[in-house]
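Section 4.2 – Deliverable D4.2 (structural model, holo form)

The reporting period included a commitment to supply a predicted holo structure for the target in complex with 3-methyl-2-oxobutanoic acid. Inputs used:
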Amino acid sequence: MSAASQRRVRTLDFARRKEAGEPIVMLTAYDALFAALLDESGVDAILVGDSLNTVLCGEETTLSATVDQMIYHGRIVQRGVRRALVVVDMPFMSYQVSPEEAVRNAGRILKETRAGAVKLEGGAEAAPAVRAIASAGIPVMGHLGFTPQSVHQIGGARVQGRTDGAVEKLVRDAQAIEEAGAFSILLELLVGRVAKAVTAALHVPTVGIGAGPYCDGQLLILHDMLGLNEGFNPRFLKRFATLGADARSAMARYVQEVRERSYPGTDHVHWE
Ligand code: KIV
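Output (structure tokens):
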């Protein structure tokens, strides 16, 4: 990697990429080990998503994630990263009650994790929180389309943008979040042509997950794209590896070899 490509990625680089027409590349991570591998791979940014509550902790939704949990995972991810921008999710109810509380929680997240930005969900109703956080000097990413923290209100993980007037509302929401100071907006589970319209209406870049190819960047959940989360098979997901199957086979071989006493062998002994 050249010296230039090893410099820390900043939120300004997101804007530069949009201007240059170069896709922004993002994946999630929740720990230092995967974060270091990702950093080496050349991704621009790593999201410490509150999806850790479902992916790692076995919860059904992201709703019970806490600020302390996000700080713990944000800090260990940042420890593994030299170059990529680390963005930490603000969990449910850490920014909805008041802009003051939103700033306090975003400030804690940045101070205690050393991450470079936070992300929060919502349209125009979230603009006061975005404005307050951005005014405090903290970079904020917005999140529109399917917003998992509102899963009960939405009625499940549904593709958004299919109803009459949906494009207009999403464009208005995206512009409100942009105007409030967000440096980028994540678009989740959106009809492709709607994501295209939202992207075209904004100056800041969009990053899509399940929103098709017309966004300024792409995000996937690392555990999904590595094939570790085998039960999750949405149309948009491409698996780039089969680590779940590899892990299962390695574990089965270990069990067998220990039982039949072929592991450890003479090569695996400290003789002195
Ligand atoms: O929590 C997360 O990982 C996210 C993605 C699903 C977009 O917000």
